[in-house]
Design a protein that fits this description.
Elements: E1 4-5, H1 12-31, H2 36-43, H3 47-54, E2 58-59, H4 62-71, H5 81-88, H6 92-102, E3 104-111, H7 122-130, H8 138-151, E4 163-169, H9 170-174, H10 180-193, E5 199-204, E6 218-223, E7 228-234, E8 237-241, H11 244-260, H12 264-278
Parallel strand pairs: 3-4, 4-5
Antiparallel strand pairs: 1-2, 3-6, 6-7, 7-8
Helix pairs in contact: 1-5, 2-3, 7-8, 10-12
Amino acid sequence: MSVWDAGPEDDEEAGAVMRTVQRQLKLWRESAGLTQAEFGAAIGYGEEQVSAVERGRRIPRPEYLDRADEVLSAGGRLAALKEDLAEVRYPKKVRDLKKLEADAVELCAYNNSVIQGLLQTVEYTRAIFNARRPPFTDDEVEQQVAARSARQKILDPSTGPRVFSFVQCESTLRRPIGGRMVMRQQLERLLEVGQWRNVDLQVLPLDREENAGTDGSFRLLKLRNGATVAFSEAPLSSRVTTDPKETTVLDIRYGVIRAQALSPQESLAFIGKVLGDTKT
């Protein structure tokens, strides 16, 4: 069994939560008169892993807290800590993005390298993070996959009155990330989400003579207070800006990209054709 790595040391929010969790776990274990080795054996973890959790070096998985609560007869007090850890187990930049997405009334995204994160299947996401060089550890891959999957809940219409517009370059539909079966499932997912009433999904074909998105992928979040946040993606970093001069440029560019792309109805037919090609 394993636990997740804790977030960066400069993540104050995660640090405060982790200090509370590690303090509670240690107090309950010591009150029960158990050593770290004895406690680890009782819950199915090694002494080193128990020590890492109590020193704040690792974030315990939900099942770790469930077993600790049971073995230490905590009456649900330790299991309840899962709610506190539910968010901080993800990297801070993911939590910050998730909060912004929750406050958005409109989200627009253009992607020309991979399928947009909110639209990815778990298998496709895992293939992307497994391909990273230098490689992530297995735990880091699963942490990243879980974080991205958690963000996708924002697409559910019941989470709030917001609309989504996605434009995918045709190249992202034909790049077989994860292999043919993974791509089939991914294309099927696009066809499913593209029919939701709060989602407009468009494809920008490669045969277009004009493409305003050659500079790279970007996102626009239009918030309830009227502000716009823009994300421009690049290797090793993502640039975030709220400067109206810059967000206006990207907003105009996105409008042009949408006009150059196929309509949502044409795009679903196009995706269906690409899906058919993967089965031949």
